[in-house]
Amino acid sequence: MSIALIIPDRKLDDLQQRLQQALPDTAIEIWPELEDPAAVEFAVVWKQPHGCLNGLVNLEAIQCFGAGVDSILSDPTLPDLPVSRIVDPALTDAMVGYLDGIVNYYRLQLDVFSRQQQQSVWRPKSPRKLSSVTVLGLGELGGAVAEHFHKAGYQVAGWARSGKHLQNVQCYAGDAQLQQAVAAADVVICLLPLTPATENRLNQDFFQALKPGAIFINVARGAIVDETALLAALEQGPLAAACLDVFRREPLPGNDPLWQHPAILITPHVSAVTNVSTVVSQIADNYRRAQQGRPLLNPVDRLRGY
Ligand code: NDP
Ligand code: OXD
Fold first, then answer.
1. Which of 26, 30, 107, 209 has an alpha carbon within 20 to 30 A of 48's alpha carbon?
2. What are 257's strand-pairing partners?
3. 156: pLDDT confidence band, cut at 50, 70 and 90?
4. Does the annotation count 248 as an active-site position?
């Protein structure tokens, strides 16, 4: 009986060690060096090469090592097994902290001062008047982010697939209400999952519905955004600036024009990184649940795509 860690391009010693401590009687192996693929019952997965799960003939469940499962579900050969994902207060806190920092970066005009510094320009400016935030996606992360900005004194709106009743958040739902949800926002934050319904959903109509001078922050997935429409909105309005943490291709290729755009702030997919020490217990718990045939924690609806 074993667990396979299928997380290419990442040092896995810490995760392996901690899982081993939590499950002393189970072999924890790092793909592709699996002693006996037929012994693998549970896989912890992130951006797996498509097809690699098929050789694990006794696999019972798939645990995503992050919150977003788009890269797992995009494998056309994915075995028909339960998939679970990470939901972790430490991940949520990290996302809230990152977004708080980014919104304050723009509020304090640090983007403008950074450009002025490059030209040795001394030109004081008052903080931007940012008073409203719309959060696209009101799930585990988006809900907490909305609550945070309410507490910080912003008018907060949010948009989800289904109707929500969140205290202090003006909630909108469904395709028909997207433009209404963002029309008054000084800052729009994307925390949607990437699914067939959200791919390229933030398109020209979306960007043209934003308020003049709005700031857009994408911490979800790059493919949710139509990049041509984003660039047009930055160059011709209404967008003033964009912060992008996620991209269609990661790492973002060195020759991508996004790097050089003066109104774009780029961070390398760091807004909320899975914390090994805080997620080990839920992974171990899900392994035991899979073995006992019990429902997994934080299950993914494979049909919905998140
Ligand atoms: P959840 O699944 O908890 O929430 C998703 C939210 O999006 C829900 O409110 C859902 O609506 C809404 N939604 C889904 N589809 C649509 C749609 N078609 N139209 C409108 N709303 C929709 O996800 P999390 O909050 O945990 O995470 C969100 C995403 O953040 C992840 O999928 C991942 O891609 C990204 N992420 C990025 C990180 C980074 O480091 N950059 C770190 C962690 C996550 P409803 O409530 O009605 O179902
Ligand atoms: C995630 C991520 O989805 O890191 O957890 O992007």
1. 26
2. none
3. very high
4. no
